[in-house]
Amino acid sequence: MFCVHVLSGQPARGTEITSLRFRNGVANHRNVFVLDGRVMTVTSYHKSQAMLDMPKMVPRFLPWKLGQIAVIYLTHVRAFAELLSVQVQHGQGWSDYIWADSHGPWETQKLTDTMKRETAKRLTAKLHTQSYRHAAVFLGRRFVGPRFAKGYGEEAEDPEEA
């Protein structure tokens, strides 16, 4: 989850990434697709829905190697873990979420704790989910161009839940 969050373009909100689904549910659609051999996630952004009367769809492409790892994880590791969990009647059981436990999708705090641990090791600064989003947008605007993360200013005004 940390790699997907950090390496697939502009970082999503914590709740967007933790609630990614790899298969369709009864009332919800999956968020992971393969397009021209590239793995992508698509999240919906609802803050603009009141003005536009529809959610904004945000596609994010995983780097090639990470996409390969994600496909292997979903097709082999995840499938085996679910089957084993159901067989022994312990663990998460069947779930449409990529990252879940027996209580549903992981909480944002799990991503935040991982980010703090990994950024402290590698950057000597503990970044949590929201501070990393701010840093990524700054770097994108500075080195990619001014259109990077267009509209992020309005989004950043509301504090993200921890």
Describe this structure in words.
This protein is of the alpha+beta class and 162 residues long. The protein has one domain (2-156). It has 7 helices and 5 strands, in the order ααββαβαββααα. Mean pLDDT is 83; it is low at 158-162.
Question: SSE layout and pairings?
Answer:
Blueprint: H1 2-7, H2 14-18, E1 32-35, E2 38-45, H3 49-52, E3 56-61, H4 64-87, E4 100-101, E5 104-105, H5 108-123, H6 129-144, H7 152-156
Antiparallel strand pairs: 1-2, 2-3, 4-5
Structural class comes to alpha+beta
How far from one another are the termini?
17 Å
H/E series: HHEEHEHEEHHH
Range of strand content: 5-15%
The main β sheet shows up as:
3 strands, antiparallel
Fraction of residues in H or I helices: 40-55%
**Number of helical stretches of at least 4 residues:** 7
Spans of at least 5 consecutive residues with low confidence: 158-162
